[in-house]
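ARCHIVE CARD
Drawer: 12
Card no.: 0347
Subject: one protein chain, sequence and derived structure
Cross-reference: see card 0346
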Amino acid sequence: MEFEYDGEIFEVWLIDDGTLDTVIEVNDIEHRFSDTSYWRDKNGELSKKGLIELAKEVIESDERYWELAS
């Protein structure tokens, strides 16, 4: 799904929401997380909103995106 962040369009996909880790892809770059509870809703689901918030966290912390999101 596409979303806009800091004036740029990014694409994020939930690749795997397994028991050991959660895998998302932002602009074709894969990211793995062992704990995504912060971004989940009260039912423990990673909603679209939570997925986008997680992707924004990735964009802010991974220098491969900094040129796009500046």
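Annotation on reverse: The first helix runs from residue 48 to 61. DSSP finds one helix and four strands in the chain.
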